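Appendix B, Record 12. Input sequence as logged:
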Amino acid sequence: MLELFLAKGAYVDPVAAHGTPLHGAAGEGQYGAVKILLDHNADYNKMVNGVTPLMAARDANSTECIKLLVKVQEEPMLKREIVASELISLGSISLKKKDYAVAAKLYSRV
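Logged structural output:
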């Protein structure tokens, strides 16, 4: 279900009272969901209410999630970062196509 929402363009990092979906998945020890969210470039460093997803995984005693989150943080940043100018360019293309939702998502990542 999570993959379907993300494939349909759901925003991967919305913040709720408990944090982002990555916070929730890590805090519940849901390795599969954590992996899917990370594969869709979820912000693994986002701090909400003083807690990062790694801290949530630690609090849940989820060794698998902890290992995955540590691994992704050790990856070279170039693999996970998209240059701001690329995002702006893609946002402009989306605006020309009148795809305002996609444009907003792209611009919000700059």
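Residues 77-110 form one domain.
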